[in-house]
């Protein structure tokens, strides 16, 4: 387990959870409020000196920033701090590398890692050889770092071709489903909003659901029966997060096409999270980026069992608990109504 210092300009609760998921042992958190980042080191010179002293005294393995650093900033910080520096993007990519299980997931993560690391290759090779592996260096992309830029670009092209074949294969599956006239309902939401638990409640699966960040990377699709005689397909997708690396959105586009092609989107929100409004906006921005913002959508406020005094007048969403089952009958009725209306309009 690597010892880590977290650095950011605002609250670091989410970065703490991300770092812990990546296997870090957090020994300190540093917040520096700045109107604009230092172009050379992101944080100020004085703060860099303070960090360096703490790194030396505590024997810190990695300093993790809650922002994406430019290649120059990362290189300057590594030299000034004399330790490994990982930014938010590399951290999220590292967690995705840990979670990837299917061939498709691994290909997409490797593509995102290589596209992120290519402009950082020189500095990255320097500190990787000096400090070894660990957080920010895991995943299928790690073994490719000793290639030169030409070889990495060739590997990126190969990955894109393989992912394109997967995309075409998915398209064939979608065309087959359309011939069966089964509507597709997709669950989306911020990571840890309870999508997978709701997915299993609706599909009546009894498997345990992990509470880890990004527990679902591969799109899962199940045929389920709603009501007496209303079959649909329901899909669970990768969770979104603030500052989701654009490399991941691009690499996972084949997976996210299931959302774009769906007849109805269920936007699952953790109503017990005090920051749920901000996280709701994050999800909507990602949906806009992939071209699904204007789809038919139901807002589902999950985890109502964790809130003592819910104010139901604040939103037009549907309140449920995927754990206790409360509100699921209302949700099912709304899904049937919305999908039925969509079918009639096609």
Keywords:
alpha/beta, 346 residues, Rossmann fold, 6-stranded mixed beta sheet, 46% helix, 4-stranded parallel beta sheet
Q: Give me the CATH architecture of the largest domain, please.
A: 3-Layer(aba) Sandwich
What's the name of the CATH homologous superfamily of the largest domain? P-loop containing nucleotide triphosphate hydrolases
Strand count, sense and barrel status of the largest sheet are:
6 strands, mixed
Oligomer: single chain
Strand content: 15-25%
Overall geometry: globular
Helix- and strand-based class?
alpha/beta
What is the number of helices?
12
User: SSE string, helix = H, strand = E?
Assistant: EHEHEHEHHHHEHEEHHEHEEH
> What's the helical proportion of residues?
40-55%
- The structural domain count equals 2
Overall CATH class of the largest domain: Alpha Beta
Rg over C-alpha atoms, rounded to the nearest angstrom: 22 Å
| Strand arrangement in the largest pleated sheet | 6-7-5-8-9-10
Average pLDDT score? 86
Total strand segments: 10
Q: End-to-end span in angstroms?
A: 54 Å
User: The CATH topology of the largest domain is what?
Assistant: Rossmann fold
- The low-pLDDT segments are none
């Amino acid at each position: 387990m690597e010892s880590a210092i977290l650095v950011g300009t605002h609250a670091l609760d989410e970065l703490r959870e991300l770092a812990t998921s990546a296997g870090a042992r957090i020994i300190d958190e540093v917040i520096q409020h700045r109107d604009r980042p230092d172009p050379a080191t992101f944080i100020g010179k004085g703060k860099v000196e303070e960090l360096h002293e703490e790194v030396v005294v505590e024997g810190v393995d990695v300093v993790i920033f809650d922002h994406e650093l430019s290649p120059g900033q990362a290189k300057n910080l590594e030299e000034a701090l004399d330790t490994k520096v990982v930014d938010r993007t590399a951290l999220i990519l590292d967690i995705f590398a840990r979670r990837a299980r299917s061939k498709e997931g691994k290909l997409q993560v490797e593509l995102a890692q290589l596209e992120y690391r290519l402009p950082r290759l020189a500095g990255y090779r320097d500190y990787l050889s000096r400090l070894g592996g660990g957080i920010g260096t895991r995943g299928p992309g790690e073994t490719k770092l000793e290639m030169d830029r030409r070889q990495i670009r060739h590997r990126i092209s190969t990955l894109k071709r393989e992912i394109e074949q997967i995309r075409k294969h998915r398209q064939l599956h979608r065309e087959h489903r359309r011939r069966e006239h089964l509507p597709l309902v997709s669950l989306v939401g911020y990571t840890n909003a309870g999508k997978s638990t709701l997915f299993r409640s609706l599909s009546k699966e009894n498997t345990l659901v992990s509470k880890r960040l990004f527990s679902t990377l591969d799109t899962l699709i199940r045929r389920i029966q709603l009501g007496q005689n209303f079959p649909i397909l329901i899909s669970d997708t990768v969770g979104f997060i603030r500052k989701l690396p654009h490399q991941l959105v691009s690499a996972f586009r084949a997976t996210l096409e299931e959302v774009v092609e769906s007849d109805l989107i269920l936007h699952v929100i953790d109503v017990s999270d005090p920051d749920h409004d901000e996280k709701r906006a994050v999800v909507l921005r990602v949906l806009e980026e992939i071209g699904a913002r204007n789809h038919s959508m139901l807002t589902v406020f999950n985890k109502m069992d964790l809130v003592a005094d819910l104010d139901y007048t604040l939103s037009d969403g549907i309140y449920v608990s995927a754990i206790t089952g409360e509100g699921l009958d209302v949700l099912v009725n709304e899904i049937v109504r919305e999908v039925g209306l969509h079918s009639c309009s096609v």
